[in-house]
């Protein structure tokens, strides 16, 4: 389970997006379901947004909108009750007790993995200090880990080398082609990012590498006009650099083994008067 947070000023745009509406106000059928609300009477996005904006107007807070997306791994299938419990625990651990803050939680169905959008009014109903926003990234990591352990969800696995992640349908072909091309280049003992880029370019793959002090720091690719990140083809920049280093080291070791053999043969030849 993983969470990402953003802070804003307008509840209208945020809540309408959560409810599955386009910017123009057109409903996207089947995209979203309202799971739970706290301290709001309305059930429609316009009403929920209006209530939250009204409550926020009593405060000096300029960015009262807290929006967090919480996602599960593709193979996990949390129930409606588990998603609601996750949202409630998340809010409370973040300092927004559902008893004291206006909250709306939606489930979205537009991606292969289950995920929810949590909207919190940072301004509490009792008029006290607005919800703190500092260190959101670190707090999200810690809180998701706690909820994962408490509710028994799977832990996020470290991205394994060569393992393909879920991508958009239009990226699937590019993902497989780039993955196979990288594996082939590594088997052919590619040793540097420049050499890797040359080999992939021969197969119609464009590389976007960021290299600092001879080390690969960022990687992405494009095949037939379809862009895809390095981590989505099974090799992060760090993993790919490690494999290139391994090939380079193997070549050096092989060279060192061959050199003594050549010198031995030369000495032997001289001893025999050849």
Automatic annotation (TrEMBL):
Residues 31-152 form the MobA/VirD2-like nuclease domain. Residues 265-274 have a biased composition (Basic residues). This is MobA/VirD2-like nuclease domain-containing protein. InterPro entries: Endonuclease_MobA/VirD2. Pfam families: Relaxase (PF03432). Residues 247-274 are annotated as: Disordered. Residues 247-264 have a biased composition (Basic and acidic residues). Transmembrane segments: none annotated.
């Amino acid at each position: 389970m993983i969470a990402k947070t953003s802070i804003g000023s307008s509840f209208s745009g945020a809540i309408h997006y959560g409810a599955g509406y386009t910017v123009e106000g057109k409903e996207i059928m089947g995209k979203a379901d309202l799971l739970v609300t706290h301290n709001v009477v309305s059930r429609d996005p316009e009403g929920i947004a209006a209530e939250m904006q009204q409550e926020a107007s009593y405060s000096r807070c300029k960015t009262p909108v807290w929006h967090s997306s919480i996602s599960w791994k593709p193979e996990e299938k949390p129930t409606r009750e588990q998603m609601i419990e996750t949202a409630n625990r998340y809010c409370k651990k973040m300092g927004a007790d559902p008893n004291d803050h206006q909250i709306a939680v939606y489930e979205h169905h537009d991606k292969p993995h289950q995920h929810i959008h949590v909207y919190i009014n940072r301004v509490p109903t009792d008029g006290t200090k607005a919800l703190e926003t500092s260190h959101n990234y670190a707090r999200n990591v810690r809180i998701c880990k706690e909820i994962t352990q408490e509710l028994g969800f799977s832990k996020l696995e470290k991205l394994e080398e060569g393992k393909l992640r879920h991508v958009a349908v239009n990226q699937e072909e590019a993902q497989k082609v780039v993955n196979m091309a990288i594996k082939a280049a590594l088997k052919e003992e590619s040793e540097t990012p420049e050499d890797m880029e040359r080999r992939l370019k021969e197969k119609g793959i464009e590389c976007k590498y960021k290299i600092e002090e001879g080390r690969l720091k960022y990687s992405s690719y494009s095949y037939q006009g379809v862009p895809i990140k390095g981590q989505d083809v099974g090799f992060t920049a760090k993993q790919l650099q490690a494999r290139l280093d391994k090939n380079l080291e193997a070549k050096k070791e092989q060279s060192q083994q061959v050199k003594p053999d050549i010198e031995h043969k030369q000495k032997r030849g001289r001893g025999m008067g050849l």
